[in-house]
Amino acid sequence: MALVTGPADAPPAPAGPGRRPDGARRLATTFLGYAILVFFGLVFLYPFVIQIASSLKTEPDAAANPLSPVPDPVDLNGFQRIFEGTDFPLWMGNSVLVTVLVTIGRVFFASLAGYALARLRFRGRAGLFAAVIAIMAVPGVVLLIPKFLVLNQLGMYDSYAALVVPLLVDAAGVFIMKQFFESIPVSVEEAARIDGAGAFRTFWSVVLPMAKPALITVTILSFQGSWNEFPHSLVAVQDPALFTLPRGLADLVSGSLGSGTQYPLKLGAALLATIPVAIIFVVFQRYFVRDANDGADKG
């Protein structure tokens, strides 16, 4: 039998002059994407650069060239005035105390409430969780006057307790912890109960160590929120000895040290107030967004 052969397959036609190769198109798209990212990155970073530069300028240079990123000459007098001419160390100490207590309280209570809503079965659980969601939808400024009235009625106004107690529980933290606990396999807790562990022992020794990513997230959010909390301090205290950093910086901006722009002093104080939050976020950023199952796998 004769073998019939057809013509050999023709080689692929070369790209015409009007067609761009896929590699060049991908390269152009990648370059455009990075160019856009760099542009918006510079837009967001430039104010911080101006803040750092202005804090190192002299008063006349900061007033004459407020948007220049290069101080001419470099002057550290603004930082010296911050520590010698203001109550910045007192504000810093108050902020550290309030932030540490609020952060510890929020992490503890949010983890307890989140575990109860995620695992314990009791009447009204769904309604209670709906109330937590509803609280998250309420703007904080709406609660300022009720906070003042409650603090004044309870005799807590103008004290450290007024700065700390109302901030110990946060609806967002409860929501985060509840969602994370629901992702942990129930079999882990069942094994602990078989070994004789009670509800709290199971929570504290078995489930909570698995929730490290969520705990770090709540810690960062609580630290940042309480460190930068300004509206609450307005209705909680009026004694200058109880001012935190945001309240003290607002006092500086309002011109408490006299006339003049005083950009180096104001921006230098704001820069120093930003450093602790930046350090906390950089140190723990790899835990900030983490798959929920990662904590269970590590446990």
TrEMBL record:
Bilayer topology reads:
Multi-pass membrane protein
Query: Which PROSITE patterns would you find in this protein's record?
Result: ABC_TM1 (PS50928)
Keyword terms, alphabetized: Cell membrane, Membrane, Sugar transport, Transmembrane, Transmembrane helix, Transport
Transmembrane regions listed in the UniProt entry:
27-49, 96-116, 128-148, 160-181, 202-223, 267-289
Location comes to:
Cell membrane
> What family is this?
Belongs to the binding-protein-dependent transport system permease family.
The protein depicted here goes by the name Multiple sugar transport system permease protein
Q: Which organism is it from?
A: Micromonospora pallida
